[in-house]
Amino acid sequence: MGTVDTYARAAIRENTRRSYRSALQHFETEWGGLLPASPDTVARYLAEHAETLSVSTLQQRLSALADWHHAHGFSDPTKAQIVRKVLKGIRALHPAQQKQARPIQLEQIAQIAHWLDEAIAAAALVGRKPERLRYTRDRALLLLGFWRGFRGDELARLRVEHVNAVSGQGMTCFLSQSKSDRESRGKTFKAPALRTLCPVEAYLAWIALAGITDGPVFRAVDRWGNVSEAGLHINSLVPVLRTLFHSAGIAFAHQYSGHSLRRGFANWATSSGWDLKTLMEYVGWQDAHSAMRYLDVADPFAQMRAAQTPAIATGV
Fold it and tell me: Which of 114, 150, 200, 284 is the most exposed place for a label (fewest CB within 10 A)?
């Protein structure tokens, strides 16, 4: 591969390339579309899948088609007026409420951490190395993910050589790229050392127990207690979290995802008095719209209802 091709491929994240390949396969192989495509063909493709695919999925398919046409020197059919009109009509006739991950609360974080502490101690007592490793890893994953407000993909890409952690002081985590880092310049994030539920101590305990000195921070552990050289795949992260939440007695564990830690932290921060600008800078959001998608709007009538409820219940 030439130098130009190498850098051109590096400009697009692997997840994006994978989703684009899947989208093009669906358009060509499964639906029978031809490339290059005409605006009418693209519009018909949208219309025929309006009831089976979400608007966000259709937009992703359009992005893949646009990328293919740009890469091969053809005019982009997705920008045609007929395509825009059809997509607008699909939004109007098939509105869908945006799905959001259930936010994890600080009280639940404490509950899960307490369960993990007991599980780690029990595994160490009877010499069950695999369980001790996995529980120690999960504790670091949980606490760092929450207090740093990381998304699942950011946790999966975190590398030991890019983390500087000092017990009792704090830690810095460098990410060479993230969803909010559009220019791929990399960014350093700080995480605090806390008296309880400390992400720094949890991280140090995990890498010491696993004997990790470089490479991915969070890795799979097999049944014999061998720690993988490769990092956890993003698709493995959600099952890990849901299994952990279920084991710790968290209700509706299936409704949580990798974004639950980020949403949970954002809601904790705002309820603790953080202003939006401080929260955006800490988490790494570039605009207020992105931040607001993670926040649960406070109910302005909640306090009034709470004050009136006793009077209503007693008939006063």
Answer: 114
